[in-house]
Amino acid sequence: MSGHLDLYIPEWQGYGKHRAVADGASALRAQLCPPLSFTDVPVPENETLEVEHGVLGYHSNLQMLRAARESIEAKDPETIFLIGGTCASEIAPVSFLNKRYDGDLAVLWFDAHGDLNTPESSTSKRLHGMPLRMLLGDGPQAFTSLAFSQLMRSQVILAGSRDLDPPEVSYVQSQGIRCIPAAALIEWNELAGAVHAIGSRNLYVHLDLDVLDPEDFPHVLIPTPGGIGFDDLLKVLRVLGDEFRIVGSSIVEYVPVGKGDPERMERLVTTLRAA
Questions:
Q1: Where are the beta strands (DSSP E) in 175-244?
Q2: Is 160 helix (H, G, I), strand (E, B) or coil?
Q3: How many helices (H) and strands (E) does the chain have?
Q4: What's the rounded Cα separation, in Å, for the pair 275 and 53?
Q5: Other C-beta atoms within 10 Å of 145: how many?
Q6: Shortest CA distance to 272 belongs to which of 252, 254, 248?
Q7: How far apart are CA 175 and CA 156, in angstroms?
Q8: Distance (Å, rounded) from C-alpha 179 to C-alpha 166?
Q9: Which ranges constitute the DSSP H helices of 199-274?
Q10: What one-character DSSP code corresponds to residue 123?
């Protein structure tokens, strides 16, 4: 084991429409280096993507997952901080830490969306709408077999999700996945109670920036009204760090508008890493 890993996966293929998320990840990485020293996962900058097996950019995304898996295996870390392009970059790091801690991991999924589609249920066929479902073991076998482990439904909390597709709503309800609305996130007792109820000693914090209210923070791939405020999110992250052992965290789907917001992004990274 090598302790901590700062991981950089600037993929855009999980969205597939344009490379704005890769550019956002690159801008954030440039802002943070130095002092952070990232392990880079190579991703093609330009390519034509097609839908195969129900996934846009099937082979390219599969190659990215293999490369991410190899990079993590080479470092064998105890903790991971990820800057990724889309939510698709989460499959390798989350599944690795779940394996590292023998399933003793709660996963707090801050995201306006559920990321719980399958190739059959997705209308867009974009992988960034499927990674959490793949982490739960559902999806093309080529992808799920590359995950280091499989999450159980009881390990997952959706935080701030407010734009789920009908099949995702049905899945959440049928599987009993806990979902905490954005408005309730600042009521600390509900969120803390949900994490404590999982009973895990370790926590992974997935942070898709679209959990934020776009009127307060517009620098996201898919702005979704009704999110949490930026300062409120920082408060939540600080308290999470005080109360739980965070072994992994991420920032994904950052798309700077104009010059972006480097000051607040630096505050966010500092808060996450301190936690």
A1: 178-180, 202-207
A2: coil
A3: 9, 10
A4: 39
A5: 7
A6: 248
A7: 11
A8: 15
A9: 230-243, 262-274
A10: S
pLDDT, residue 2, reads 67
Q: What is the pLDDT of residues 143-188, one digit of tens each?
A: 999 999 999 999 999 999 999 999 999 999 999 999 999 999 988 8
88-98 tens-digit pLDDT: 999 999 999 99
Tokens of 238: 């600080």
| Alpha-carbon dihedral sign for residues 102, 108, 113, 114 | positive
Query: Distances from the Cα of 18 to the Cαs of 11, 126, 235, in angstroms?
Result: 11, 12, 33
In this structure, what token pair is assigned to residue 32?
Answer: 């943070």
Residue 275 has pLDDT above 90, yes or no: no
Q: How far is it between the farthest Cα atoms of the chain? A: 47
Please give the domain boundaries of the chain with CATH numbers for all domains. Answer: 4-274 (3.40.800.10)
Q: Which amino acid, residue 5?
A: L
3-state SS, 57-96, equals CHHHHHHHHHHHHHHHHHHCCCEEEEEECCHHHHHHHHHH
Q: Which long-range contacts (CB under 8 A, 24 or more apart) does 58-64 make?
A: 58/140, 60/13, 61/11, 61/13, 61/14, 61/88, 61/127, 61/143, 62/142, 62/143, 62/146, 64/9, 64/11, 64/13, 64/88, 64/89
Contacts for 50-55: CB closer than 8 Å, 24+ residues apart: 51/125, 53/119, 53/140, 53/142, 54/118, 54/119, 54/120, 54/122, 54/125, 54/140, 55/119, 55/125, 55/127, 55/130, 55/140
Residue 1 in this model has a pLDDT that exceeds 60: no
Integer Cα distance of 190 and 173 in angstroms: 19
Under 8 Å between Cβ of 133 and 89 = no
